[in-house]
């Protein structure tokens, strides 16, 4: 467990190097708001995240699954699409198939148990990073 906690802290530190807007969900998962970071890093959010994933694997020895989209809800879906060691992007064209309002007024897959901050919105670039390790 100590190795897992140490790896989680190292990944979190690397996340904060990518953006100051990190919203931890657990020791091995967080939302990163990458809105406006293209100018800072001199590359697109997707490219910065690909480098981030490679850096984590090289320096810490674990893999990450990354989902990139316009909001947290879709970024979380994207990160779950291609595990382990995956990288998925849900663009605006795919958005409607995951966020159609139902008759109850909630979006598909985002009922009362989903926090409002994770429900579909139309702002920014969000990424969900899930770190996985075999450390014990």
Record field, number of beta strands: 5
Radius of gyration: 15 Å
Let me know the average pLDDT: 75
Discrete helix count: 5
Tell the overall outline: globular
Main sheet record:
5 strands, mixed
Search tags:
single chain, 136 residues, five-stranded mixed β-sheet, 5 helices, 40% helix
Produce the secondary structure layout:
Layout: H1 2-18, E1 22-26, E2 29-33, H2 37-41, H3 45-59, E3 63-69, H4 72-81, E4 87-89, H5 92-98, E5 126-132
Parallel strand pairs: 3-4
Antiparallel strand pairs: 1-2, 2-5, 3-5
Polypeptide structure, described:
It contains 5 helices and 5 strands, in the order H-E-E-H-H-E-H-E-H-E. The protein is α+β, with helices and mostly antiparallel strands. The chain has helices at residues 2-18, 37-41, 45-59, 72-81, 92-98, and strands at 22-26, 29-33, 63-69, 87-89, 126-132. A hairpin with a 2-residue loop joins strand 1 and strand 2. It has a 5-stranded mixed beta sheet with strand order 1-2-5-3-4. The longest helix has 17 residues, at 2-18. The protein is globular and about 40 Å long.
């Amino acid at each position: 467990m100590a190795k897992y906690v140490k790896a989680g802290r190292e990944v979190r530190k690397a996340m904060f190097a990518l953006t100051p807007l990190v919203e931890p969900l657990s020791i091995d998962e967080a939302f990163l708001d990458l809105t406006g970071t293209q100018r800072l890093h001199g590359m697109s959010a997707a490219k910065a995240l690909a480098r981030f994933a490679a850096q984590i694997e090289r320096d810490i020895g674990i893999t990450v699954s990354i989902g990139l989209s316009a909001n947290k809800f879709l970024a979380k879906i994207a990160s779950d699409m291609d595990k382990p060691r995956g990288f998925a992007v849900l663009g605006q064209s795919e958005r409607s198939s995951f966020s159609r309002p139902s008759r109850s007024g909630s979006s598909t897959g985002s009922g009362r148990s989903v926090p409002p901050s994770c429900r579909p919105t139309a702002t920014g670039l969000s990424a969900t990073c899930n770190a996985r390790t075999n450390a014990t």
